[in-house]
Amino acid sequence: MIHLSTFLTVLAMLAVTYATRIGGYLFLRDRTISPRLQAVMETAPGCILISVIAPHFATSNPADLAALAVTLLCATRLSMLPTVIIAIVAAGLFRHLM
Amino acid sequence: MSSIDPTLDTIPPSPVLRGIKDALPMMLGFVPFAFVLGAQAAQKGLSPVEVPMLTGFNFAGGSEFAAVALWSSPPHLLLIVAVTLLINSRHLLMGAAMVPFFKGQPLRKVLPALFFLCDEVWALALAEGRRTGRVDLRYYAGAAGSLYLTWVSCTAIGALIGPVLGDITRFGFDMAFPAVFLVMLAGMWKGARAAFPWLVALIAAVLACIFLPGAWYVPAGTLAGLLTAYLMARPE
Question: InterPro entries of this UniProt entry (chain B) (predicted)?
């Protein structure tokens, strides 16, 4: 049920993925960083988050864009669980109706 | 015995349970993606044992979707590893952002914890760190453990039953992912000026989505945003 080539590929993926996870931590652990670098680091999480979800913004499907707008509005006002539920319902509904 | 003890109400909830509770909305978002990934992997010829091996060893959904999309028999190891590295390179910054919150914790605990640092676990840990100044590893274990088990088990289920499910994104479940991330961004909001690099990142990533193949949009957006932040910050 497990092919050798699959096992080796997955193992190689494990190695690079884990390296990225500990690499940044180990590199910065014992260093003091400049205020400018600190400002960049503070912006980094938001930049990554928004880049990862960029494909959702890159659509021309009006139903998806409408659902995204509803989600964006909820995200600025509500907490996590209600926002997620409204987002799912809005996407399902708009795709069905539009 | 102690059920009438009035102090019982004031005992804080277990950090592990708190982590699981905070991870619940993300688990909701994981399930449909895991089913889709498992189903796609099965279609590419991966067995129901190989699928949880792939997701359990990596626990990085984006790279797993890319790997499955590129999968052939036998797989192109170097191509898949290069794409995995590219997509997961953001973990370097995410791990670095965790440094202040893991301060004083021994490496023998932090290094295993970092194995579970996917986008969602990181975002939860970051929010917890901003709230309390540090990340309790018990809280981290609750959040990471529950998300890990959800992801790996649901990809395995997807590999088994996926072929009969069809396309489940039509029910809107895929919108859970951007919803989770947008709530997090709202929590990090520090005014329009501070958020300007995010806007640059979004525009660059969307352009990369449209004009570049594959997952280049993640490094493209992130680098554009970081460069903007660097230029906006005054050198000392």
Answer: Brnchd-chn_aa_trnsp_permease
Of A8, A50, A57, the CB nearest to B185: A50
Please give the single-letter amino acid code of residue B110.
Answer: V
Give the torsion sign (CA, B74, B79, B85, B88).
Answer: negative
* Residues A90, B188, B20: CA angle, nearest 5 degrees: 70
Contact of A60 with chain B, judged by CB distance below 8 Å, is answered with no
ipTM value:
0.81
Q: Answer whether B85's CB lies under 8 Å from A12's CB.
A: no
In B, minimum Cα distance to A6 occurs at: B75
Nearest to B184 by CA among B109, B90, B93, B121: B121
Whether the CB-CB separation of B53 and A10 falls below 8 Å is answered with yes
Task: Quote the CA–CA distance of B8 and B147 in Å, as a whole number.
Answer: 29
Residue A51 to residue B75, Cβ atoms within 8 A:
no
Angle, alpha carbons A80-A83-A85 (nearest 5°): 105
Distance CA B183, CA B189 (A): 10
Q: Over the range B149-179, which residues count as b (16 or more CB within 10 Å of their CB) and which as e?
A: ebbbbbbbbbbeebeeeeebeebbbbbbbbb
- The alpha-carbon gap from A69 to the nearest alpha carbon of chain B, in Å, equals 10
Rounded Cα gap, residues B223 and B216, in angstroms: 11
Q: Is there a contact between A25 and B96 if contact means CB atoms under 8 Å apart?
A: yes
